[in-house]
Amino acid sequence: MNDLGRAFMLALELIWRLDPGLLDVVLLSLRVSLTASVLAFVIGAPLGAALAVNRFRGRTGLIVFVNALLGLPPVVVGLFVYLMLSRAGPMGTLGWLFTPAAMVTAQTILATPIVIALTHRVSEPLWIEYGDSLLIGGASRPRAIPVVLSMARGGLVTAFLAAFGRAIAEVGAIIIVGGNIRGYTRTMTTAIALETSRGDLALALGLGLILISLSLLVSTASVLLGRALER
Fold this sequence. Notes:
Elements: H1 2-16, H2 20-53, H3 59-68, H4 74-85, H5 100-136, H6 141-151, H7 153-168, H8 172-178, H9 188-198, H10 201-230
Helix pairs in contact: 1-10, 2-5, 2-6, 2-7, 4-5, 4-8, 5-6, 5-7, 5-8, 7-10, 9-10
């Protein structure tokens, strides 16, 4: 118990004095996760709205498939990206394997279904209520997508923050494609796993406290922004 208390105090000390090693890991995690979240949002939000607006054969099956992807195993995504970016893979010439770019790619794949599914859920009721008015007013279905997205902006904030939360908490996929290289591809989650196995509980606890704080901050921001946009 004394060892745990000592490790906890050391963790707080690392955070207080902004330990360079800890700070580098946190900044890399934020940079990678924010980039992946933005890409997932740019790709997923229009697709989610398009699912709500358009009617076509197989639409229900596609919606079920997108929702099924919410439970996509991260290690499978990591393996897929690894095979794509390896020297023998179709994207091997990019040289992205074991770089932050590979980590962004894996996190984007994991976060995009979240954005699509959440955007579809908030856009569907809006289209049911206002779709006929938009079509009668002369807007085609593709042109109605930006309008629906503007009306669903509160839900879009939630979708983006959910994608960010999924990305920053990821560990399995980015270990496979990033390699957990110190000072280059080591993020908070991979560092926590490594330092725990090495017995450095102070650094692991420090990173864990920051990760929990970010999760709480994301949840709070989601609620407050959602309410503000609704008003």
